[in-house]
Each structure stands twice: as C-alpha cells, then as structure tokens.
Amino acid sequence: MRELPSNQLDPRIKNVWRINDAIWIAVVFLCCFVPFGIATLVEPEPWLLMVLAGIAIAFAVLLILFVVVLPPIRYMRWRYELSPEYLDIARGIVWRKRFIIPFIRVQNTDTKQGPIMRAFGLSSVTVSTAAGAHEIPGLDVAAADELRDRAAELARLAREDV
Q1: Carries keyword Hydrolase (predicted)?
Q2: Which sequence spans correspond to the domains of the chain?
Q3: In this structure, which topology does domain 79-161 adopt according to CATH?
C-alpha cells in the first residue's frame, strides 16, 4: 500500500472546524429546544421537561465531541501531496478515504474563503474533474494560491502531453 501523503493542513483549521461545528450544533439545538420550551411554558407536563433535559444533554455531548475531541483527530488524518502526475488526498476518521486525482483529468482549480476562514487567514483549494470536486481546506492563503496555480499548471502540461 502506498504511503500517506506528506503535507498536513495549517493547524489553525482546527479552530475553524470548532467554530463551524459549534455554530451548527447551536442552531440545531435551538431549533429542537425552543419549540419544546414554548410548549412547556404553555402547558407544563413532566414528559416535556424530560424531552428538554434530553435535548440539553445531547447538546452538551455533541458540543464536547465536535469541539474538543474530533478536531485534533480530524487534523491528524487530513493529508495531501502534489506530485507532477497527480494530487493525492487522504482524509477521514472512521471512514478513511484516499483520492488520487491525475492531472490529465483536472478541469478547474479554485480557491475559496468563508468569513471564518478569512478571519484565521486560511483558504481552501478545490480541484474539479468531470467526476466531481475535491477540496483541501485550511491552507494558508499564500500556500493555497501557490497550490492552486501549481495544480493548474500541471493540469495544463498534462493535457499538452497527450
């Protein structure tokens, strides 16, 4: 079996993942908790209080899991490597995925930043093929621009060789 790719993401991506996950968990919590909270205020019943307690416990467990436990593990498992022939991406905690993207198949390369990534000075690179797009999140802005430009150049060279 081939060795894992050598490049890791920028460590600041762990904080971006924490913030993104915390926001989504809080939104889902509010969408679940508020209706039962209103129902409890209108007509207090014991089973409604138990549902509220269950939602609050689930919120706390998910918050600890997604903010404390998973980001370091996810960071360790994310790897990528750019060679003259292909882009190699390895990721995943439970379901590990490995993508080998030959540059002859690459159609487009992009970079993108959301507001949270921009606040941390990070960017993502997306490499698109006919089969789909593959994203490398959490690279320093300069490194992302360099990776995007190098991948585009290698794709152009691969098409010229055919």
Answers
A1: no
A2: 8-75, 79-161
A3: PH-domain like (2.30.29)
